[in-house]
Model the fold of this input.
Amino acid sequence: MSAAVWVTLCAMSAAAGYALARRTRPCRGGLPEEGTYLALHVAGLAAPSLRAGLTRESARKAVRHLRTLLGTAALAVTSTDRVLARDGDNLPVDEEILAGVRSAMTDGRPHLIPGDGPISGSIGGPGGGAATVAGVVVPLTVEGRVIGALVAYDPLVSASRVRTATEVGRWVSGQLELAELDSSRRRALEAEMRALRAQISPHFVYNSLTTIASFVRTDPERARELLLDFADYTRYALRRARDFTTLADELSCVDRYLLLERARFGDRLRFTVQVAPEVLRVPVPFLCLQPLVENAIKHGMPGEVRVVIEDAGPEAHISVEDDGIGMDPEHVRAILGEEPRGGIGLSNVDLRMRHIYGPEYGLVVRTAPGEGTRIQLRVPKIRPEDSPV
Done:
């Protein structure tokens, strides 16, 4: 939780604590602590739904907790054009609720709803007020845009109640901001995956087709087989499929890639692949293995590339190793620390693994000039339910 959201939550807790404590009648002497605990507890119950964004379903799940937090007789949650959820008795019909929120939607500030009940104080602070009100409208905003409103109804609307509703509205807006950030991150990763599929190295395409063409006259059957391998590889890399696949599919892609590169380099490229059969059905992020093999060939020629995948209990451990020229460790750290800049490279795989499984699941690269390179990757056997891709 960001510092700004936490400060807002603390302020909201202080304002709402008394109302909650009064409704639950805690024991004498424990009022401040009990009220703060209840406010935080109820806010925690509402937060998960709000982190899904402002939808009819999330509003229905959160509205009861928000009304408890405010201590109002009734509460409605609206978008800009419809009532999403309501809780409590004697709420107006949807058209009347929406009519009451239009002013708040326009200027983005809390507004009072005219009614038959008295108000003591004002939005700005204590003091008398001649107007009578039925409730208060607090706009909900994301990145400065009003996307909805909280509409709290009560027979008696005090200045304290208005301030409490305002703070709750700010806290809800903070949760919706976080939901928007989560959504933006998912969209960015999905866009990255779509771009990733289209970023097969032009050099690889050119070199593969040139190699195939070289066999057309001398070995037509070999050319035909390589052309089919190339078609299978590109079909897999460019497919519109789920962003997760299986290790078996990834290995099939790697096999086609290695066959094409072997046709190009001949005996200068040697490779071995050892796989524990138990891990073949493990779900893995799409195109997480081929970039590691491509990097090994790039830095290991001429030489041998070894791919080893082992069963490690709850995880599959992947190792891609070459005995080539190696790399400067500082250069590797710089590569992994930068943003991906096109191509299906190490930084792209490292970033996606950390996003999906956590920071401890990034690439581990062991290398030194003249000593080859070994890249290790750990993949949990169970795909996370809330994975961003």
The first helix runs from residue 3 to 24. The radius of gyration is 30 Å. Confidence is low (pLDDT under 50) at residues 1-31, 117-133. The chain has eleven helices and 13 strands.
